[in-house]
Each structure stands twice: as C-alpha cells, then as structure tokens.
Amino acid sequence: MSIPLDKPELLKAQYRAFSYQLPLMYVILLTNTWVLAATHMSVAPAWLAVCIPIVLTLVCAVRLMAWSRSLRVTPTHEVAARALSRTNRLASIIAVAFTGWALLLFPYGDAYAKSHVAFYMAITVIGVIFCLMHLRPAAFTVAAIVNGVFFIFFALSGNAVFIAIAINTGLVSGTMLITLLIQYRDFTRLIEAKIETEALSNENFRLANLDSLTELPNRRAFFSHLGEAFSQAEASGQSLAVGIIDLDGFKPVNDLYGHGIGDKLLYEVGQRLAGLCAQNIHLARLGGDEFALIISRPSSEPELLALGETLCTALRVPFIFAEAAVQISCSIGFAVYPDNAGSAADLFERADYALYHGKRTMRGKAVLFSSDHDAEIRRDARIEQVLQMADLQEELSVVFQPIVDVRLDETIGFEALARWTSPVLGSVSPVQFIPVAERAGFINRLTRPLLEKALTVAANWPAGIRLSFNLSAQDLTSPEGLLHIISIIHASRFDPKRLDLEITETAFAADFGQIQSAITTLKALGCGISLDDFGIGYSSLSRLHALPLTKIKIDRTFVTDLHRKPASYKIVKSLLALGRDMGLDCVIEGVETQEEVTALRELGGFLIQGYFYSRPMREADISAFLNLRSSLPFQNRARLH
Ligand code: C2E
Ligand code: CA
Ligand code: CA
C-alpha cells in the first residue's frame, strides 16, 4: 500500500488527483472544527475552545499555502513521491491532534454538545477518508487512529448510544475503506491504460514521421520541422537554409538491377548523408530519390556550397553490394532565409528551383539560389501569363533545319522548330517558352498548332524528304493527347512513314510504361521515333532497348570542337558505336565547322544537322535551299550560309 515509486506516471497522476482534494479536505476539517468550537465556546475554557482551534487552523493554513505554491510547477516524480510521503506522515499527526482536541472538549457541555463531539468525529473522519482516497496509507492511518480512539473512548464511556454511534461509524469507515480500495484499483488501471495509449500514440507518431526505407524523417516530418525552424529563425533573426538533393542516375540502377538494389542504394545514400550532417542539420527523405536538408544558422554561402560539394563527392564513391557495384551522383539546390525567401514555402520552392536549374545546367553539383534565378522565375511567370492568353494559331510559327547525309551530300529531311512572336514580349526562344508550357502543363495546346503547321508545309516537299517533329513527355502521357496527335497526322496530307517524332530521354522520367506504349502506337502508324539529345540523359540501355526507336540524335554538347577535345571525341565515338550496335541511324546535332564534319566522318557519323549546313529557315526558303543544293557540283554543296 506504500507509494508506487516504481511507477512514476501513476505517482504523478496520484499527486495531481490528490492536489484537487487536499484543499477540500482542509475546508471540511476546519469548518467542522470551528462549528464544534462555536457550540462549546460558552461552556469550555477559552484555551480549548478558541486557542487550540486557532493554532490548528494556522498549522493547516501554512500547510495549504506550501502545497498551493508547489502546485504551480508540474512535479517530477521524485518531488511527487516526497510530497506524498510527507502527507502520509502528517496525516497521523493531524489525526491525533484533532481527535485529541475533540475528546478534550467532550466533558464540557450538555448531552447535545457531547453528541456534537461524537458527530463531529464520525462525519469528519468520513469526509477526510474520502478526500484521501488517492493516498491509501494516509486514509487507513486516519481511519485507524480516529475510529480506534473513538471506539475505545466511547466503549469506555458505558453509554449505549455512544457505543452504538461508535459501531456505526466503524462500519461506515470500514465500508468507505473497501470502496476506496476498489476505486484506487480502478484508478490505477485507468492510469496504466492511459500510459499504454500514450506510448502507442507516441509510437504511431514516430512511425508516421519516419521513412521506413531509409529510417530517416519523412516528407511530413520535414515540412513540420521546416515550419518550426522557420518560425524560430524569424523570431530570433537568424538565418536558415534548405537544401534539396536529387540523385542522378538512380532510375537506371533501379531498372538495371531491380528494386531490391534500388532500395538498398537509397538506404545507403541516407546513411552516407546522415554521417556527414552536423548537429544543426536536419536530414529527411522527401520521397523517390529526393532527400532534403534544413540547416539552422548556416555560417556563409561558400560554406553551404562546400557542404554541398562534400555530399556530392561522398555520393559519387561507388556503392558496393554483393550483387553489383553501382555509381551515382547527385545535384543539390540551396536557398537561404532571409536572403532568398520570406516564408518557409518560398524557401523550399527556391531551393527546388535552384535544384531544377542545377540539373539543367550543371548536373552533379551544388547550386545556390541566386538573383539570376529570381529574375528567371519572374521572366518565366511573365512568359506563362502571356502564353496562356496568346492566340497560338496566329503567334506560333515553325522553322525548319535541314538534316544532311554527308556521304551523298543530300538533304534527307528537316527538323521543325517552334517560334513564338508575341505582340507583348516580341520573339521568345523555344528554350524559354517550351519548358514554361511543359511545367505549367499546357504544352499540348502548343503542340497541336505546331504539328499542323509543320505537316502542312512538309506535305509540299519532294517525296524523299522527311520531317522531324519534337514532342514533349506530356504529349504522350495522356491518352487524349496521343489521340489528338494521331488525328492531326491522319488529317494531314503527309505520309506518316516520312515523319520522325523526336522525344528526349528526360521524357522517360515521367511514366516509362505510358511513354513506351504511346511510342509503340505511333510507331505502328509508320512514324519513325528519334531519341533526342542522346547522351546527356541517364537512361539505361535496358530502357532504350525496350523502346522501338529508329534514330538517335547525339547532343550538341559533345559535338562542339570534338576534334580538339579528346573527351568529347571519345564520347561521340562510343555513342555512334552504340547506335550502330542497336541498328539505329545517328543524327549529329549542332555541327558548326568543317573540322567537326571531318572528325565526325572519320568516326562514321554521316547524318548531320547544324549551322554548318544551315540555320533553321522559313518555309519560303526551303525550295530555294533544296534546288540550290541539288544544282551545285558535289564538292561545293556544303556551307551555304
Ligand atoms: P532541339 O530539339 O535539340 O533542337 C535543336 C536546337 O539546336 C534548335 O534550337 C536549333 O536551332 C539549335 N541548333 C541547331 N544547329 C545548331 C548549331 O549548329 N549550333 C547551335 N548553337 N545551335 C544549333 P531551338 O530552335 O532554339 O530549339 C531549342 C529547343 O526547343 C529544341 O531543342 C527543342 O527541345 C525545343 N523545341 C523546339 N521546337 C519545339 C517544338 O515544336 N516542340 C517541342 N516540344 N519542343 C521544341
Ligand atoms: Ca529535337
Ligand atoms: Ca536535340
């Protein structure tokens, strides 16, 4: 029945429950005492009827005040234990004092006054026991002292009425104690159930905020932590940075080695990153192959970039598994509060923008959000706004760039390239407006008029000349979009067998299955399928093999000055070899000089597109271009512009 020292939560609950009843107990005790004192003031001596009650009241008041002061702080379980054992000890002293005082009053006064003493003792002890229900030792001590003394005293009095009262009181107190024991057991169970529920909900909370694969905080935890950290930074005027990490080359690993290795890789990436994150960095996995950092009080921008470099370098070290050794890299985008953003959401978005920008321009590096990015965001927002309202049929046009087979020096086709002349913004490059329309999700509204225009022009070309047309991932991911493209091709006078549709590798990041089936459908129409910007993406070979490709287009970045850059030379060489192995034609883009053409011929690259032959031209210039070239002697045909 002692205090449950081994159950801190129960102890604290007991303390809390008792705290509310303690003042009530003293109110009962003192009120009853003063009422009894009042009925005896005229008959008993003043020291007994007045002085002792004053002393007892003072003692109780001191105790109450001490207690109420300690109530202001939530007690630790040691404090609660000490307070409760003190109460246990005090209970017996107070019981003895009040009982003694009451019995001293007994001899004074008539039978009514005597009965009042008996009634005072009986009723007060019941009230006190009730108030002490959460402190069983105190309740039992008080019951034993008061009832014991009461019983012995009145038994000795020889008065039958008082003996009867003593028996009644003893029985009621006994019943009260039994009820109290039952009640206490229920109380204990309730508290234990509550503790269990709390533990369970804590565990649920932990699991709901944990990424089960990497055992890092998940997206939900990240954003809730970001909210808190941001409020803190705002309040204290300190800086805060967000970094978003995206793995480069994760998807091919997943494709090539399966999800088992993919999962292991993500776990190991999480471990490596966690190992490099200092105390002030909160690391989380946002989902897929994206991780994120919240950095409290970053020291400086160069140091953030240095941290980014450290993380990138660490992830470039190959991961060795029993099944395979895999190598990936990562790009990181950082944004800093208060320099780059005024809210938590902005901070995240800007870090994401820096990442997006980094992925396009310097993969495998850490990029800090800059004022240039800010200007770009504004510019893109403006482009989006104007483009949404534009009369696309009127403002969009198509130009054509020839693709030449250098072996026979023959133009084999043209690539259609979009142009937008806006009455508001003037001429806007497709490098700007195409990504904006893609990100805003309305590229298909552009694709339709562009494809119609390109097909209308191409329908007038000589039979041997092909048309290449660029499609975005989104053109292929919705069944309606695909149907629309097919209906435009059918409605034109151009033979689909002369049409090549160009798709970039980045399109496969969206939904490989969907893209694959869309491409297969288009191939079945007779269209050729070209893989655009080959070499800069990270598609695995297994993925490329799964697509019914007819051509690959080697990106300009590898072609520029390849005769002077051994690295570029080697890459083009191996890309060409890869194309040959896969039985695909290779178009080499962005060829600008005779030296590049010569080097490419050496390597066996014959299909060439670039400023060396011609810049993209208007429809009206095409027949002149074709006629002029076919009329030139073979060796003079190149370089017309
Ligand atoms: P792309 O498909 O890789 O197109 C080739 C780009 O390289 C064209 O830029 C072309 O003008 C440029 N180019 C060709 N030869 C040379 C050269 O020798 N040197 C240099 N420096 N550049 C050369 P453009 O027309 O600005 O198009 C840029 C990109 O916009 C295209 O890249 C393509 O991704 C996208 N795009 C253009 N038209 C369309 C379209 O109708 N639909 C879609 N979805 N995307 C389009
Ligand atoms: Ca293209
Ligand atoms: Ca290209």
TrEMBL record:
Residues 238-371 form the GGDEF domain. Residues 380-630 form the EAL domain. Keywords: Membrane, Transmembrane, Transmembrane helix. It comes from the Bacteria. InterPro entries: Biofilm_reg_signaling (IPR052155), EAL_dom (IPR001633), EAL_sf (IPR035919), GGDEF_dom (IPR000160), Nucleotide_cyclase (IPR029787), Rev_trsase/Diguanyl_cyclase (IPR043128). The chain crosses the membrane at residues 20-40, 46-66, 87-109, 115-133, 138-156. PANTHER family: BIOFILM ARCHITECTURE MAINTENANCE PROTEIN MBAA (PTHR44757:SF2), DIGUANYLATE CYCLASE DGCP (PTHR44757). This is GGDEF-domain containing protein.
